[in-house]
Amino acid sequence: MPGYDTHYLFGIKAYKKLPDSKIKEAIKKRKNAYILGVLGPDIFFYYATEVVAVRKNIGSVMHTQKTDTFLKNMADGVYLKELDVTTKPCSISRINNYTFRIILMQGLNRQIRRMCQESGYKVESLTRVRIMNIELGGLKIGEYRIIEGKEKTMLYESL
Question: How far, in Å, CA of 28 to CA of 35, rounded?
Fold first, then answer.
């Protein structure tokens, strides 16, 4: 997967090759949005660092009752044999006997499911409620919304 620099350089090169047009004018007015776009989904999924993919908020429902020990172990970080890595500490809180909210500081593939599996639990469903500072609300699969105002400013400042 190409890195940030490759995506950025490609985006700049593509912009320079565009003929003078309304599209080029729109990009010029919204350069930050254009740069964010050329980075693709990588900033949210592949390069999950504490600065970029911070705070994936996910409510997780499990098939069996949790214990405070389980929640503490999850919060401290879990060794994932399959990936030979220990997850970074995260913030976790109980919602009820079968549901918890977790804020991850990294974004490993299937991280929550793997963390729960290592602790002997099976995740029944996951609901992503936020990415970085962007609340997803009731968005359905395939839906999107325009990021504006304070959310947009905070997103650009964190990149």
Answer: 11
Model confidence at 5, pLDDT cuts 50, 70, 90, reads low
Tokens 């997803």 sit at which residue? 136
Secondary structure class of 8 (helix, strand, coil): helix
To the question of pTM greater than 0.85 for the whole model, the response is: no
Query: Tell me, what's the pLDDT at 52?
Result: 28
SS3 content of the chain, % helix, strand, coil (to 5): 40, 20, 40
Determine the Cα–Cα distance for residues 139 and 121; give it in Å rounded to an integer: 28
Does 56 have pLDDT greater than 50? no
Residue located via tokens 């639990």: 121
| Residue 102 bridge partners (DSSP) | 58, 92
Write the pLDDT tens digit of every residue in 30-40.
Answer: 777 777 677 66
68: three-class secondary structure by DSSP: helix
DSSP state of 152: H
What secondary structure does DSSP assign to 76-95, as a single string?
H--EETTTTEEPPP-EEEEE
